[in-house]
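Q: Okay, next protein. This is Transport system permease protein from Thermoanaerobacterium thermosaccharolyticum M0795. I've checked the sequence twice, so it should be correct. Can you predict the 3D structure?
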Amino acid sequence: MKIVLIALIGALAAMLANGGIAVFNDGLRPIMPEYLEGRMNKAELATTSFALCFGLVIGFGIPVSISATILLIHSILLGTDIIGTWSPKGKVGYIVSGVIGAIWGIGLLIGLQWIINIFKKLPVNFFDPMGQVGTPVLYAFAAFPALAIAYQYGVKNGLITLGISALVRALVARFSPIIVGGNKITLNPEGMALLAGMIVLLIYAMTEKKESGSTNIVTLFSERVKRIKKNVWILAIMGALVSAATASHILAGDPISLTLVSKGNYSAAALAALARAIGFVPLVATTAIATGVYGPVGMTFIFAAALFTNNPIVAAILGLVIIVAEVYLLSGIASFMDKFPGIKKSADNIRTAMGQLLEVALLIGGANAANMALPGLGIFIVIGLYLINEIAGRPVVRMAVGPVAAIIVGILVNLLAIFGLYVPPVK
């Protein structure tokens, strides 16, 4: 069932990209109308798609997936963006992109397990240390609403929000589980701290009102909105498949929820996915309205719904319904954001804050994992590789440096052990 789900996701996503119906890369979406309306040829689109997506697949999606043994959605859908845009036009293109997309998805799923099996058979086990890569994320992810508030409303308000989140976490950790009517209710401290921070952020954002004279984006691109609605059911099927795979815990929509799911913290993962979805509403909505091209996972609410249910069948139904609702509410969402510009600004700051938090947390996690595998030298290598990557102009995105460096250290320690230059400590 896992292989069938991943194959269908890979096939359909590649076909959606081939038809210019939906692409995953937010940077590629605004370029698609240039091709669809004849201002860019196929070769130019394919080259641009490869340039935008390939580095993220190799340098981010796959390393993060290996660290948690769950496929990050970026691994599949950035690849299918490339496959879809490189495949020929027309019916032949749909078939070619669908077949290659399915092979890509299956290859990732089987390849990930193959890599993990190899890691476990090496002279020095560094599969267990790799589990430490995501540990700092577990405890730090609830801080990003405070960071977003600090960006938008100043450091003082950010510190106040951080204090509120920390207090909520401490109270929940102290008094959970709560007994109500003889029933035990267990609350996740990090999840509740995140919820508290998001409530404060929304209160701040709702206080900003619309400026006079602004134009609603929907009135400018009504024909492109109609194009998305025309393809709503194929998009809904895609949403159902991704939601089912997420509820089966073989896929995750972002590194935070991926890490939480790998540790069994499903409620916290759902809240993190929900917060991320809120942050992506303005970006997905505005680029979709302006381009007529949607995202294969929509505004990413399907990931939160899947993790709240943890039932593939229920999740599939919810995924389908959510995508349909998103598409038909596009105009209303744009009008709402027009009335409350603070919400749109806060969404931008949420994405920035989440990105920066992950950069730091995954770097620390990578250093911890490397130090477990190769004490002392491991941290030296991780920090050194991070700084060299910065000097080189970041050929590897910051978020992926920690996991990539930890994998390099794991390979190195096994080479040293093979040549007798390292003896693992006896436990």
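A: Here is a summary of the prediction. The mean pLDDT is 86. The radius of gyration is 22 Å.
Q: Noted. On to the next one.
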